[in-house]
Specification:
Strand content: over 45%
Shape: globular
Structural class: mainly beta
Largest sheet: 7 strands, mixed
Order of helices and strands: EEEEEEEEEEE
Radius of gyration: 14 Å
């Protein structure tokens, strides 16, 4: 089992920045591929960013590329999502997730259904 505890988020204005954190416990963090997803009201959960277990590969949704940055600190069992130049359309509940089954140094998946463990979610609201 893997437990994921998120922090960060809140209410900001368009153009502002936020950093989300997600601390993992229960399994060797360096064995996990970590992803960030978000879900806006009335919409399905969608992929935002992913980082493989050794940071060998990183991927972003087109909507956040060049604005968001995912990183991890395996010594602290933590994955981060730095969000810059936030837009109102970034408003959503953000979730971190861990993929153990597909985890590799370079391969990753963007599919929600492939991630076995999920954080509690944190609200990010961007006002115009």
């Amino acid at each position: 089992q893997v437990q994921l505890v998120q922090s960060g988020g809140g209410l900001v204005q368009a153009g502002d920045s936020l950093r989300l954190s997600c601390v993992a416990s229960g399994r060797t963090f360096s064995s996990l591929t970590m992803g960030w997803f978000r879900q806006a009201p009335g919409k399905e959960r969608e992929f935002v960013a992913v980082i493989t277990r050794n940071a060998g590969s990183i991927g972003y949704a087109d909507s956040v590329k060049d604005r968001f940055a995912i990183s991890r600190d395996n010594a602290k069992n933590t994955v981060y999502l730095q969000m810059n130049s936030l837009k109102p359309e970034d408003t959503a509940v953000y979730f971190c997730a861990a993929d153990l089954t597909n985890s590799g140094n370079y391969h990753y998946t963007r599919e929600v259904s492939e991630y076995e463990y999920w954080g509690q979610g944190t609200q990010v609201t961007v006002s115009s």
